[in-house]
Write a structure and sequence with these properties.
Layout: E1 3-6, H1 10-21, E2 30-33, H2 37-45, E3 49-51, H3 54-60, E4 63-66, H4 73-80, E5 89-92, H5 99-106, E6 111-116, E7 126-132, H6 138-149, E8 152-156, H7 162-170, H8 172-189, H9 194-215, H10 219-226, H11 232-242, H12 245-261
Parallel strand pairs: 1-2, 1-4, 2-3, 4-5, 5-6, 7-8
Antiparallel strand pairs: 6-7
Protein name: Pyrroline-5-carboxylate reductase
Binding site for NADPH: 54
Catalytic activity: L-proline + NAD(+) = (S)-1-pyrroline-5-carboxylate + NADH + 2 H(+); L-proline + NADP(+) = (S)-1-pyrroline-5-carboxylate + NADPH + 2 H(+)
């Protein structure tokens, strides 16, 4: 396999690290390009080859991940349009970039897999939403899904849902980090040392998420299991509801989804 990465920022580095840690590719099978020296140093630290030349990475790769910010996609695709090998699969990771948009710039026959990963890929617990265009063969898609599963989980969804995947999967770690921080702050206010408060809050969130995934129970049912009649938890839930906790989260995610639709 020859895996090319155009861009070596946080998300690309997380993907590379996860793929290497799971043994899904060897360091010599990955080439990352970036104009920024600090970003190239990130790739070097992971043990992969780096270059300043996007065209070199594009011409070398069987699978090419374009890991740049949405506003740079047009310029990057124009730059690499005429140097890609036949049969290459182009993988995008940017919000708002549709497979049709990529086809328009690289040609009607291009194979495009559109993904929305998230940064927990750095610790092997990423979540990636995936769709592809009609040119991608099932075997090629399975190969990409295997790479994505290597640093977490991958979920294939219709392309019309990809903007929603930004808010519920790609951006959501930021909301969860804020939630953990807020819980830790409250525990600190109650006298707990901050390091212990952060560990306890983070483990509580990790364990709760694992219960949702492994039990198959609805989150509401699991919440009810914790809420004893007249107990401490239902008191906290009541306070959260009085302050519009769920509505606030939903409004924030809707704003995120709408922003994703306007990225390009």
């Amino acid at each position: 396999m020859r895996l090319g990465m155009i861009g070596c920022g946080n998300m690309a580095a997380a993907m590379i690290k996860g793929i290497l840690d799971k043994g899904l590719a060897l360091p010599e099978e990955i080439l990352a390009s970036d104009r920024n020296a600090a970003a190239r140093a990130r790739g070097t630290a992971l043990g992969v080859a780096v270059t300043e030349d996007n065209r070199k990475a594009a011409a070398w790769a069987e699978i090419l991940v374009v890991a740049v910010k949405p506003q740079f996609y047009g310029a990057v695709l124009e730059e690499i349009r005429d140097c890609r090998p036949s049969g290459q699969v182009v993988v995008t990771i940017a919000p708002g970039i549709s497979t049709e948009w990529v086809e328009h710039r690289l040609g009607a026959g291009v194979k495009v897999v559109r993904t929305m990963p998230n940064t927990p890929a750095m610790v092997g617990e990423g979540m990636t939403a995936v769709c592809c265009n009609r040119n991608v063969e099932q075997g090629e898609l399975d190969r990409i899904l295997g790479l994505l599963d290597g640093f977490g989980r991958a979920e294939q969804i219709p392309e019309r849902l990809m903007d929603a995947a930004v808010s519920v999967g790609s951006s959501s770690p930021a909301y969860v980090f804020m939630f953990i921080e807020a819980m830790a702050d409250a525990a600190v206010a109650d006298g707990m040392p901050r390091a212990a408060a952060c560990r306890i809050a983070a483990q509580a969130v990790l364990g709760s998420a694992k219960m949702v995934l492994e039990t198959g129970k609805h989150p509401g049912e699991l919440k009810d299991m914790v809420c004893s009649p007249g107990g401490t938890t239902i008191e906290a839930v009541w306070s959260l509801e009085r302050h519009g906790f769920r509505g606030c989260v939903m409004e924030a995610m809707r704003a995120c989804t709408e922003k994703a639709k306007r990225m390009v």
